[in-house]
Design brief:
The chain is an alpha/beta fold. The chain is built from 6 helices and 8 strands. The chain has one domain: Rossmann fold.
């Protein structure tokens, strides 16, 4: 059965979950103790499970150049660990967040999950860049810059199999519409 992995956070995560359920897909929203009531969680990761992600996050940390994972609070570490779990068993990733044109990375917490997917060589990674209102497909890295390809009017294939639906908590109307339309 088709399964959508997400984090259950307000915004894009919850919209992916709603659309996946409407399409008849299973939905797994990962969380951890203390995530807060704003998240719709149906799988609580235990401490040992969360720590399985550390080596992957440390690798992404170096590539994203956003700080030092070891210096983050335990809560932030767990958010990043949860992001890894969202992509760890996926065949494709659908993300809705802003794209940094300068280096091709995805902004915000979503960027960590996308980087993990790229590092794990997930063959299909798609991004809806909310400011530009365009879907992109990841197409490799050249000289340390992530390359994203788009074609006018293109959208990714309808979600199927084991996939991740993730994105910004501060989702725009265009981002919500992009998620809904990808299921059509």
């Amino acid at each position: 059965m088709d399964t959508c992995f997400s984090g259950g956070a307000e915004g894009a995560d919850q919209e992916w979950g709603k659309c996946a359920e409407k399409a008849g897909h299973n939905v797994v929203h990962y969380g951890f103790a203390g995530i807060g009531s704003r998240h719709k969680v149906n799988y609580i990761l235990l401490e040992d499970e969360l720590k399985e992600a550390d080596s992957y996050i440390e690798k992404a940390d170096k590539l994203l150049k956003r700080g030092n994972f070891t210096n983050y609070s335990n809560y932030v570490k767990n958010i990043l660990r949860r992001n890894w779990w969202q992509v760890s068993n996926s065949e494709r990733v659908y993300a809705v967040a802003p794209l940094n044109i300068e280096d091709g990375t995805v902004r915000g917490g979503t960027g960590w999950a996308v980087q993990n997917a790229i590092d794990m060589h997930i063959p299909e990674v798609y991004l809806f860049d909310m400011p530009r209102r365009i879907w992109y497909r990841y197409d490799g890295t050249l000289n340390g810059i992530q390359m994203w390809v788009n074609e006018w009017g293109w959208k990714p294939p309808k979600p199927y199999g084991n996939y991740t639906g993730i994105g910004s908590r501060e989702i725009t109307d265009a981002g919500l519409e992009a998620i809904r339309k990808v299921y059509e």
